[in-house]
Automatic annotation (TrEMBL):
This is Lipoprotein. It comes from the Bacteria. Residues 1-17 form the signal peptide. The keyword Signal applies. Keywords: Signal.
Amino acid sequence: MRLLQLALMLSCVLALGGCQTTGTQNNKISETQYAYSAAIRWGDFEGAVNLIEPKLRKQLAPTTMQLERYKQIQVSSYRDVGTEMDKEKGTAVRLIDIGVINRHTLAERTVRYTEAWTWDPEVKTWWLVSGLPDFWAGQ
């Protein structure tokens, strides 16, 4: 009887392992957005460029001068204030408030940034289509 119970428990554990949902669009968007926000929070703007949709990457990638400007700031916060996702269209939009500190003046301000994402079913990944945040818009 114990052997039957052990076999039944083992089959239940294995069945639960098969229920893993990694790889779905929902999980992939969360993983990709987490990696992107981590890159921005840690000032890895060149790494964040790798998450831009490959066909748009050359057009949206920051110039050498823009990358130098990114070195003048420190990201102090990165807060999601709203997300919308349309799985049928394969699009997602996320509103972000980013705290930015000027390294020279130590003045802090908040910048509102809108991320736009698109799902690529061929490679099963999400790509950023809105480009990196512009911390100097209007300045």
